[in-house]
Design a protein that fits this description.
The chain is α/β, with parallel strands linked by helices. Helices cover 41% and strands 17% of the residues. The protein has a 6-stranded parallel β-sheet, sandwiched between helices. The chain has a 4-stranded parallel β-sheet with strand order 6-5-7-8, with helices on both faces. Helix 1 crosses helix 10. The longest helix is centred in the N-terminal third of the chain and has 17 residues. The protein is globular. Bound molecules: D-glutamic acid.
Length: 265
């Protein structure tokens, strides 16, 4: 892999842009190609077989782009097991951090909530990762299926979003959690709303930075980190380019990006 090859970042929709933001800050010289499958989002309610087929199409897109690394900026796809996605692809693949050490370090009472899609929660992956480090921890996994459609639908100031936030944060409060991990990359788009509902008593953890650190490690191990110059970003969506652009600008308001509509084979 050569240093000047780009890094691919993928998600079911716009959510992974929250990870892209972090990657760009930590790796300013790298060139990024983001791919969000806005035509088929959300992935959370879908079956495993279907999302496996979708992610394979996205990885083939990155074969053509000759990327040196792909960051799967989607927890729903990460819990499939990134090692099972590698197949014949030449690039390495980094998935979302489960953030188990982070939440355990942040939680005084070891009472931890996990917000994620129903697919992610169904696998139990985050709970297992936390309990593997501290079996005495108390973990409350909470599926939040209403969030992604509301975010993708740009319903930020809506009653529906306010009600969904109340519904899920009430469950978290009932569980007595003092720490919450946002284990869906869409949720940082509504972090403020979640924070306002929870007040100051709950630490909110976004595993994006930890994921970016993992990507940096892999680039260093492969000797292909680009450290000179200013990197570029191309953001591709599979549908609704204008909506994608508006949503991406929530996370990356002050940056110059190239936006493209693409078709997956
Ligand atoms: N952003 C994704 C995640 O981190 C998936 C959301 C979805 O498509 O349901 O899980």
């Amino acid at each position: 892999m050569k240093k000047d090859m780009p890094i691919g970042v993928l998600d079911s929709g716009v959510g992974g842009v929250s990870v892209l933001k972090c990657l760009r800050t930590m790796l300013p010289a790298e060139d990024f190609i983001y791919l969000g499958d806005t035509a088929r989002t959300p992935y959370g309610p879908r079956k495993e077989e279907e999302v496996r087929a979708f992610v394979e199409q996205m990885l083939c897109f990155f074969d053509e782009k000759r990327v040196k690394l792909v960051v799967v900026a989607c927890n729903t796809l990460t819990v499939l097991g990134v090692e099972t996605l590698k197949k014949e692809h030449k690039f390495d693949i980094v998935g979302m951090s489960k953030g188990a050490e982070l939440v355990l370090a942040a939680s005084k009472e070891k009472k931890i909530g996990v917000f994620a899609t129903e697919f992610t929660i169904g696998t139990g992956a985050h709970k297992d990762a936390i309990l593997a480090i501290d079996p005495t921890a108390c973990v409350a996994p909470i599926a939040c299926p209403k969030f992604v459609p509301l975010i993708e639908g740009e319903k930020f100031a809506s009653t529906e979003l306010a009600e969904a936030v109340t519904e899920y944060t009430d469950k978290l409060k009932a569980a007595g959690a003092d720490t919450l991990i946002l284990s869906c990359t869409h949720y940082p788009f509504i972090r403020k709303e979640i924070e306002n509902a929870l007040g100051n008593d709950v630490n909110i953890i976004d595993p994006a930075e930890e994921t970016a650190r993992e990507a940096i490690k892999v680039l260093a191990a492969n000797g292909c980190a680009k450290t000179q110059g200013q990197g570029s970003t191309t953001i591709c969506f599979t549908a609704d380019l204008d909506r994608g652009i508006r949503l991406a600008k929530h996370m990356l308001p002050d940056t110059e990006n190239v936006f493209k509509l693409v078709n997956l084979k």
